[in-house]
Amino acid sequence: MSKAFRELLKKIGSGNHTGENLTREEAAAATKMMLLAEATPAQIGAFMIAHRIKRPTGEELAGMLDAYEELGPKLQPKKGSNSSVKVLGIPYDGRSRTAPINSITALILTAAGVPVIQHGGDRMPTKEGIPLIEIWQGLGVDWTKLSLTETQQIFESTGLGFIYLPNHFPLAAGLVPYRDQIGKRPPFATMELIWCPYNGDAHIISGFVHPPTENMFRGALETRGFPQYLTTIKGLEGSCDLPRDRTAIIGIIKQNTELERLHLSHNDYGFSNINPPLFPTTNELINQIESVLKGEPSEMMQSAIWNGGFYLWHCGICPTMEAGIAVTKEIITNKNAAQKLEEIRGAIAALQLAYKT
Fold it and tell me: Glycosyl transferase family 3 N-terminal domain: from which residue to which, for each copy (predicted)?
């Protein structure tokens, strides 16, 4: 198969004058050959760096998603549930400058009855920032010990699921070392932001940094027939955490509709322009997150309310942004988000106890 892969590599790696984009089918084939290690290590590294230099097209991202859909894991809808699941796409290489808010947002949403799926792995090149998995571990929720079947049970009982690459998609985790070896994020890092490891009605909410990335997202989903509803957030460090130091730029793309652009200014809702910085240690970050869940005032609390207000409004729980902010304050003040965290901890503990006995 390495000979077949070589032809695809030649196509994207021939330079500006003779190089060509891959078709959706070719991109899917190349991705499968890399995931299954049918391409050689030299070919995989060469493909990743050549594709990064060329820049992927929407059609190529669609092919990558096809391969992930065929070979990757999926959580299943809860029986009898018609709820649209929110899949939060966040860079796998984590955060290094600003405090992550997304775990709090997930607790706020699930406390309000909105099911959420996150996905990612351990510390990852090139940023090696703090990943979601470490934050959840610090909060007493260890997704790394759960099989896909167990994760499905937790998702069904609590509304929150986490696809952990090393356990649930080891083929994809096997490509992670190449990121360190080539010293750059490959196009897979872009595709992962709109990957949907769920076999049901999904609403993908993805972070992005550069405007061309948003166009790639749209092109990929258009090619695939818009199987999901997409929201893009020009968020903190490429995440879907809304910033407070600038206007939040949001794109909303529903099936067969034009991009709807939304701009939200923190000033209009009484928030300051301070993004909480990343704390020096993970323990300090976890302590601050826990203080927010206890209802203790802080800049992180303000960011949690800012994000929670938007997401509750955007997900249809509240009719306006103002109402979303008010309900978020109630969820935090009444300890509903903290109770949801305890519920998830308890569900995992009960599951693990059942397996021991």
Answer: 6-70
